[in-house]
Amino acid sequence: MPDKADLQSVLDRAVAGGRVTPEEALELYRHAPLHALGQAADAIRRRRYAGVEHIATYIIERNINYTNVCVTACKFCAFYAPPKSDKGWTRDLDDILRRCAETVQLGGTQIMFQGGHHPDFGVEYYEKHFAAIKKEFPQLVIHSLGASEVEHMAKGSGVSVEEAIRRIHAAGLDSFAGAGAELLPERPRTAIAPLKESGERWLEIMETAHRLGVESTSTMLMGTGETNAERIEHLRMIRDVQDRTGGFRAFIPYTYQPENNHLRGRTQATIFEYLRMIAIARIFLDNVAHIQGSWLTVGKEAGQLSLHYGADDLGSVMLEENVVSSAGAKHRSNLMELIHLIRTAGRVPAQRATTYEHLVVHDDPANDPVDKHVVSHLSSTAIEGGTAHPELRLIDAN
Ligand code: SF4
């Protein structure tokens, strides 16, 4: 057990703007008192956002799941259906455009196009769909996909990942959501996603995207049996790439959900582990601007707490989400509640753009939105029989 004074001196150095080594980060993550970690992370956040440190942001977005058919069979996934399964479905373009229209109508600014690795979908599929979305809804930001999808579509079309990225970017993709990072170190990644590309390859593709001018966020799936050292190694791998590219806008850890998948029964990450990760990410990732807290997988109270452990953003009102909720995430929220959660955590809420500019600062509660339709709809596809939901009825929800 390291000396408390030694741990505090590392935290003091980080607060003063110094860099923390991976070895020090692991010691802090394992042994630093929770409140000391949170205090240091919050001080770093305040320094980085001096002048707007009283604000915490959120976004209104919709995840559009275009297919659940997938050849990759990740063990933690409760969403996919193998090819030829009668549980597989694919949305047609009209359905996707209708969901985009609802997103615009409800004040959403971003869509996350998210789905399985369909054996028939190459670069052409994404070009066609992104171009159609941008033609009808140029105001929607397409913040979607990740390195895994790029690897899959490039192989399917017989082109390089560089060409795949150039083409989908030209067709309308604005930025990558950083999906598929899971755990980047080899041992835990192979244990939960043996058919996915390696962590090194995932980073290589994101680095290529950044070089081509397509920025991204980065993610981490916590709680599938990885060690603390492997969690810190995941952060190190991201920080090293970020030193070269500066293309990761944010880091977003989230916790494994145990229902309906092959890992059922494994220990989940606790709230304390989650908060420690938010804090250590703010302390260690000194080159990543935004650390995103979440309410979907860890609950609303933990989401509020994350804003005091280094997070500057509380995620989104997800007008639709099917992937994590299929695995058991049952928390729901809405625009008014999300604003309330941020305000009662002691911050001024602000709706943000994908690139984190403030669109609306809710500095006067009297002017808060009152639209009850802006609700997070979860598991619209995870219904009995596993077929696609015939109609979402978002506009009619109350
Ligand atoms: S996580 Fe993605 S790639 Fe893995 S099985 Fe699920 S849909 Fe397929």
Topology of this protein?
Layout: H1 4-15, H2 22-31, H3 34-48, E1 55-65, H4 93-105, E2 110-114, H5 123-136, E3 141-144, H6 147-157, H7 161-171, E4 175-176, H8 186-192, H9 199-211, E5 216-222, H10 228-245, E6 248-255, H11 271-284, E7 290-291, H12 300-306, E8 313-318, H13 323-326, H14 335-344, E9 348-352, E10 358-361
Parallel strand pairs: 1-2, 1-8, 1-9, 2-3, 3-4, 5-6, 6-7
Antiparallel strand pairs: 9-10
Description:
The chain has 398 residues and is α/β, with parallel strands linked by helices. It has a single domain (53-396), classed as Alpha-Beta Barrel (TIM Barrel), CATH 3.20.20.70. 40% of the residues lie in helices and 14% in strands. The chain has helices at residues 4-15, 22-31, 34-48, 93-105, 123-136, 147-157, 161-171, 186-192, 199-211, 228-245, 271-284, 300-306, 323-326, 335-344; strands spanning 55-65, 110-114, 141-144, 175-176, 216-222, 248-255, 290-291, 313-318, 348-352, 358-361. Strand 6 (248-255), helix 11 and strand 7 (290-291) form a beta-alpha-beta unit. Iron/sulfur cluster (SF4) binds at residues 70, 72-74, 77, 79-80, 116-117, 148.
